[in-house]
Amino acid sequence: MKLILIGPPGAGKGTQADVLSKKLGIPRISTGDILREAVKAGTPVGMKAKSFMDSGALVPDEIIIEIIIERLGARDCINGFILDGVPRTIAQAQALDGHDVAIDTALAIEVPDEDIIERLGGRRVCPDCGTTYHVKSNPPAKEGVCDACGAALIIRKDDDADVVRNRLQTYHRETAPLLEYYKAQGKLEISVSHSDVTGTAAEIFKILGIS
Ligand code: AMP
């Protein structure tokens, strides 16, 4: 299955993509993760991307298109993949179509803006192992400390309130038009995010006909 997950930042795309990846045995591909790795490693791509990411803006299309086309050429993508957070612009979607990446379904996860602000404001992440927490809905056993590896949890720079507002505006302006794009291709499915991860996963499985 070749699947795209579309949704605002904090919609739970990453979590759902992980669930689907395990269930279907196909990789989850997140350009956000690839870029964060590049920033951490200080590569030329990472150095170019950092200021865009820190301000909540999109990284330029040509950088993303190169990254994603290269990644989709890897052997583990032969039986399908789940794209998490890419494409995020019409130009990126057209580039995938231009490279004959035959997407089966674009699944939109809908969440109201107020819920996003609440979710991302309380998000804490482990800088070492990547485990994600929420101060209210999914707190670690000991405040500020990762359950999995004991590292001190941090707030992602782009989860800062002003940056979140920027990311939401960017989503509505640049990414939401993809819904019409995939609807016109007859590939769009819409799911509404529930407050619990399992409820959302169950709805997505139903939409995709996975038992
Ligand atoms: P994410 O973890 O998917 O929210 O991505 C974090 C940040 O990386 C975004 O706010 C963007 O700055 C950048 N980014 C990730 N994926 C893309 C993409 N497909 N197009 C443009 N920028 C992206």
Q: Would you give an account of this structure?
A:
The longest helix is centred in the last third of the chain and has 15 residues, at about 160-175. With about 210 residues, the protein is of the alpha/beta class. The protein is globular and about 45 Å long. Helix 2 (about 30-40) crosses helix 3 (about 45-55) and helix 4 packs parallel to helix 5 (about 90-100). Strand 5 (about 125) and strand 6 (about 130-135) form a beta hairpin. Helix content is about 45%, strand content about 15%. The protein has a five-stranded parallel sheet, with helices on both faces. It has a two-stranded antiparallel ribbon with strand order 5-6. Bound molecules: adenosine monophosphate. Adenosine monophosphate (AMP) binds near residues 9 and 158.
Brief summary:
This protein has 211 residues and is of the alpha/beta class.
What summary fits the major beta sheet? Answer: 5 strands, parallel
Query: How much helical structure, as a percent, in the residues?
Result: 40-55%
The first-to-last residue Cα distance is 14 Å
Oligomer: single chain
Order of helices and strands: EHEHHHEHEHEEHHEH
Strand content: 5-15%
Strand order of the largest sheet: 2-3-1-4-7
The hetero molecules present are: adenosine monophosphate
Radius of gyration: 17 Å
Structural class: alpha/beta
Low-confidence stretches: none
By DSSP (H or I, 4+ residues per run), the number of helices equals 9
Form type: globular
Work out the number of β strands.
7
Average pLDDT figure: 93
